[in-house]
Design a protein that fits this description.
With about 290 residues, the protein is mainly alpha-helical. It has helices spanning about 5-10, 15-35, 35-60, 65-70, 85-95, 95-115, 120-125, 130-160, 180-195, 195-205, 215-230, 260-290; strands at about 170, 175. Strands 1-2 form a two-stranded antiparallel ribbon. Helix 3 (about 35-60) crosses helix 5, helix 8 packs across helix 10 and helix 10 packs parallel to helix 12. It is globular. The two termini are about 25 Å apart.
């Protein structure tokens, strides 16, 4: 069912769970079908391919994978086990590519509708502003998971094609089976997706501040880059534990045996805090916003 069908079916009626699910489904389909979204997913899928090919060429030339210790985490282990390409690809995309993609989708969520003149028609339906905002945020969260899985699945396929698979060695030096390693890879992908909920809420809040989708996307990505820079300045170390990207790479602790949970819990708690703060700010702004388009 298209968005137009959903809106027509809900016109003049009170909202109900089935109609809300239909709206969520139509929003998901609309988001994924956009050429911009497909291009972002294509870029994300290409990163593991490029990393895998680069490592394969380097090792065939006689050099060590990762240039003797340089490069993303786990890269030196890829030649021993292709599953490490999943961890390497996620470590390579999480600092910028994944949050940038989420920032683009989140920034366009409300502002894009306002700029296209469709926001008023969405609000004519019985969803109401709060329900529409929650639907938009749920759509962005679904994209967080989709984007992360695209990276992970692409890396797994490339790793299986170019490198051997089997038992792998954890950071702690213990050996685990391939099945357990695959389970940890899935858990890591879920943690990486959860690490993006703060960016999603920030982007949604920015999206409620303007009627220009391009401005909202640019502002969200600009804020992301700024926070990343601040997180790397030694003089600001006291502030850094409160920045949403500070614990992003803590997912590597899932490859320890036993798992080291402290930074993982801090990361998830920090993302929940950002989601609550900027989600509330987005709600306050959107429910009071004058919709003229």
């Amino acid at each position: 069912m298209s968005r137009a069908d959903v809106l027509q079916a809900g016109a003049g009626r009170r909202p109900n769970p089935l109609w809300t699910l239909g709206l969520l489904r139509s929003e998901l389909v609309t988001t994924v079908r956009r050429w911009r979204t497909l291009a972002l997913l294509g870029v994300l899928a290409a990163v593991p391919v490029l990393v895998g090919i680069a490592v394969k060429i380097e090792t065939r030339g006689g050099g060590p994978a990762g240039g003797g210790g340089e490069g993303p985490a786990f890269i030196s282990q890829i030649t021993n086990n292709g599953l490490f390409l999943v961890f390497t690809a996620l470590a390579a995309t999480l600092p910028f590519f994944l949050p940038m993609a989420v920032g683009v989708v989140a920034g366009d969520a409300i502002a894009g509708e306002a700029g296209a003149g469709t926001l008023r028609y969405l609000l004519v339906a019985p969803a109401g502003r709060t329900r529409l905002l929650l639907t938009k945020y749920a759509t962005v969260l679904a994209f967080c998971l989709l984007a992360t899985l695209v990276v992970a699945v692409s890396a797994l396929l490339v790793g299986a094609l170019l490198f051997p698979l089997g038992e792998l060695t954890t950071i702690s030096g213990t050996r685990i089976s391939f099945a357990e390693g695959l389970g940890r890879a899935l858990l890591i992908a879920l943690v990486v997706a959860a690490s993006l909920v703060g960016v999603a809420a920030l982007g949604l809040f920015v999206s409620t501040l303007t009627n220009s989708g391009i401005a909202a996307m640019a502002t969200t990505v600009g804020l992301l880059i700024t926070v990343q820079i601040v997180d790397q300045i030694p003089q600001l170390h006291a502030l850094q534990p409160y920045l949403f990207p500070h614990y992003w790479l803590s997912f590597a602790d899932l490859m320890r045996d036993p798992v080291y949970w402290d930074d993982l819990v801090k990361n998830l708690g920090l993302q929940a805090l950002y989601a609550a703060v900027f989600g509330a700010a987005a709600w306050a702004r959107f429910t009071a916003k004058d919709i003229n388009a």
